[in-house]
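Continuing from the previous page of notes. For each protein in this section, the sequence appears first, followed by its structure tokens. Read the first protein now.
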Amino acid sequence: MEIAKNKEKVQEYRERAKALVAQMTLEEKVGQTLNWAPAVERLGIKAYNWWNEALHGVARAGVATVFPQSIGLAATFDEDLIEEVADAISTEGRAKFNMQQKYGDTDIYKGLTFWSPNVNIFRDPRWGRGHETFGEDPYLTSRLGVRFVEGIQGHDENYLKAAACAKHFAVHSGPEDIRHSFNAVASKQDMAETYLPAFKACVQEAGVEAVMGAYNRTNGEPCCGSKTLLKDILRDEWGFNGHVTSDCWAIKDFHEGHHVTDTPVESVALAMNNGCDLNCGNLFHYLKQAVEEGLVDESRLDEALVNLFTTRMKLGVFDEKGKNPFDEIDYTAVDTKAMQDLNRKVAEKCVVLLKNENQTLPLDKKNLKTVGVIGPNANNRRALVGNYEGTASRYWTVLEGIQEYLGDDVRVMASEGCHLCHKKSQGLGQEDDRISEVKGVCEASDVIIAVMGLDSGLEGEEGDQGNEYASGDKPNLELPGLQQHVLETICSFGKPVVLVLLSGSALAVNWADQNVPAIIQGWYPGAQGGRAIADILFGEKNPEGKLPVTFYKSTDDLPEFTDYAMKGRTYRYMQYDALYPFGYGLSYTDFEYSNVSVTKDGDGAVVKATVKNAGKLAGGETVQVYVKVCKENTPNAQLKGIKKLHLQPGESANVEIKLSREALGAFDENGELQVGGTVKIYVGGQAPDQRSAALTGKKTAEFELNI
């Protein structure tokens, strides 16, 4: 029984924490509610900084394995792999922590409390932070979020390996430039159906240690001081017993941005009284005044400290060294060959093959003399890593990966093609100053690999990138700058072209879909990403990723960015055909489904199928189960079951996926689950929409049940 479910051990830690807090002065208590908690030497309390990041690797504290960005991890649809990655992250986190403690380093980003994962729903493709998430679907986000938390926290019965944090609670997905004053209005139905499920799963299934509030208001309440979210739902309804942290400097937004309070003292009182235990920032200094003025009862402050010290005790930092098994993880566990190999494997599994006309891919180097690699992301390290990233000891861009793979056997010619978003590459040059080089490379090449898209300088968090490009959000879904022009120029030469997109979100590449024979989505594939993409391009590995987000044809297909109603959003509510649908992704091999059945099982149902690799290459397939509740005001068919398979040519596997009672129901306008009536269940390797069928030439199996 892991510590997250070991109630007796947790209670023992809570009693120890209460005894410790009882010995502290008011001033000492207040200091411990800040993310940079100072030492209390007389009580044997070391200084500790709660702020650390591990979204896709240990971040911001030196060398660590930089895995693919979260949206890429989501494209694997592979729960086991997500936990394997998170376990590797926490191994490196412990290794770095043990070394840092040895040398007395308690700086920011040096603790064991990782503010990951981000389980917000990627509601709108314009949101700059969407690549931090596991995509647009609440079921997929829940499943991957749970396994990520379990990988970070480990399965020891007495100690946490590290502490995970589900963020940003709740209803948070842009716009970035108004997040400090914005009020996200969401119906009870959308809350229950879309915005809350992943948080609930992380709390109730994974026992996540921490929850972070969001910057914005939700239905009028600032999230980091929301009675509805932090008390009524999180504590009372879900039974959360960890600690709550604010987002960084979010509490000052109460009076400066949201204007729900008038003074800093009122803001900290609102946050603390409604269940926020820890302040990322410095405003909780005012808690001393708030307690003295009677705005906060000291017993509530004590409760917050017990929550916080219980977490530190679960991490074993108050116990004798050696008692905690994770103390034995040595710094040499960081950036090992095994970690690098895992990183490359994961990056390969993230890649989504969007188009492969006439089997353009994989390329055969034996038939090539010269390969052109063109585009602003061809040699762009920033397009490998996304945001909240660590520092790799070695990076492999797409150009470098192709050069390594082809070696001296094939000539590789390269061109930046254009700047990522500006009209010229050199400040003193004329507009489109690389186009002659593009033409020269195209003329000399047998095949051209165009590497385009975005990087974390164009999509990210407000303020992170200097607000050069829409404050982190995307203004539209187009390829920025001159990239479309360069792509059209490349195609005009009549050579085979492969478009590699590196981005953390969907792009409306309609022209490419009509004119480029092969397209792959590589996301931000991590430090080993270039090698992984080369392996895919040349057939050493078979693409198996599926889209965790919808690729829309245009922003015209979307509601207003500030509208948080789900109507018209994501595959679950969209009313138009997608360019590339959620759940879609091609393979170099072919999978056949047979013996598909759906039967009632108590209050739920059981789906069974036999899946065969009918092609000539080994490959991975994601079995997807969708449920459509046949009532008015319910979503389109929703993902409710997944199973990842890896099959050799000719190999078959039997799959069984259980659907709970809840999976067969839908939420009404009051946010209450309603089960009963007719449901349709779809089984296959894709979603049951017309566009997926047109792209793959396949249809999902369909069943009808009366519940």
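Done with the first. The second protein uses the same format. Note its length before scrolling.
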Amino acid sequence: MLFLHKDQIIDVPEGTTYLSLAEQYQSGYDFPIILARVGQTLLELNKTVTEKSGFLKNESEPERLVFITTYDRDGHKTYERGATMMFLRAMTHVYGKRIEKLKLEYAVGDSLYFNCTLKNGRISDEEVDAVKETMRRYADENEKFTKTKMQTDEATALFRRHGMTDKERLFHYRRSSTTNVYRLGNYYDYYYGYMPPSTGYINVFDMRRYADGIILTLPYHRRPTEPGRPEIPAKLFETMRATNVWGENLGIPTVAALNDAISEGRGRDIILCSEAYQEHLIGNIAKRIKEENRRIVMIAGPSSSGKTSFSHRLSVQLENVGLRAHPVACDNYYVEREKTPKDENGEYDFECLEAIDVELFNKQMTALLRGETVEPPTFNFKKGVPEYNGSTLRLGSNDVLVIEGIHGLNDALSYAIRPEDKFKIYISAVTALNIDEHNRIPTTDNREIRRMVRDARTRGFSARETISRWQSVRHGEQKHIFPFQESADVMFNSASLYELAVLKTFAEPLLFSISKDEPEYTEAKRLLKFLEYFLGLSCEDVPRNSLIREFIGGSVFPVG
């Protein structure tokens, strides 16, 4: 079979494993190879080259073969899944039937948090050390991850015997007649995504006891041979835990439970409960702002976290407690286009702090706090200049500025404003749902789908364009937003339990429009597979002030 690898045609005998090819070409890569991609199809290394491999249309057009390393996004996720299965098997080995519940709840930065409930007693440091040593032994023994395609009914019965009822419920809604099941030794599990060839690939990790469970630390994905940071930010952890507890109490901890509710006609109830929960939280934030006599509210969060709708809903709640809210968009304080810094590619860098007229922003905000009248600019994005239309602003004794922007939590933006005048809010979409107890829903997937739906509706962008820009967006978040999240006075989780079931009906047609010969096809295929887990839910019952309306349309707020 002929392949195109790094611009060279290579001839590979049929039956050759991609693992043996990876070993042959590993010296040409900086980091360990963990997956292969032929054309736009990802393949596990244990797969073999077949007569169907290698050709795009005919023998004169060989498919491109690319090896995926642990540095790449798909490679890092594969490493994470392998480490998760090793950890779960090691936990079963150490604790056995003492485990009552073991759930992967969060993934933040380089760490995974597993909530563990034992039938008697609590997790000890000594037992955590035993789990770690067991994982090290698995890595040293280099055991193979074995994948078997089973009839879905057979897989359901297998997991029922092993007490994994969450997977049994999930498979009830599976349309495919077959399911891939992974085995490591005598431990079986199901995973959304690909696996490494063997446990020897998972050789960088650490763990420690934390809260009611264990943090498993993996390599930092940009330095995949070095241990990552062994912590989860405290405020973010508490926000995620509160949302998870609420979801558990509502009886919707997994996608299967959400599907049950939808199929039983309780979808509307889940929508109303989710919205009521968020409104309760926003109301409490408004009360706290009034009690602490804060004059300026600074809101920041990553792309598609719902910042704009949140700022409007918060403004309504501020009015409800007797304060008058004035929204201010940091985007209106952009410097003139020709003064905007450029990035390493020579493109305008609108996300750096220097793209904002920080001096003007501080001058006007401090003047407002002194009771003076100012004329804020309105940025004309077509012309690339700030404009003044005669509109003025002056703060009364009960007035509050609600400022939304990417740098809202960075004190360098608001350096002249006293800390006691500022109330900082970090907003993100951290879903409380898991696919099942061992497969989490990444926050980034939730936001990527949100952005895709909104981009198509408001900007005319295709799903392919949104996907192609997504990693650049993520890079900006890592640089400008995430480092400041723990400085927030409060964190707000904008994710709703029901939203992916609603977004599914909007996103699937957009994703299906991406053709197989486009670079974004692999990601589109992954997201389509992810959305298959959900039953669709009509948006008819989604309130018009919902944050989700910012993405699907129909909002009462001016959100595009």
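What the second structure shows: The mean pLDDT is 93. The chain has three domains: 2-69, 75-237, 238-552. We return to this in next week's lecture.
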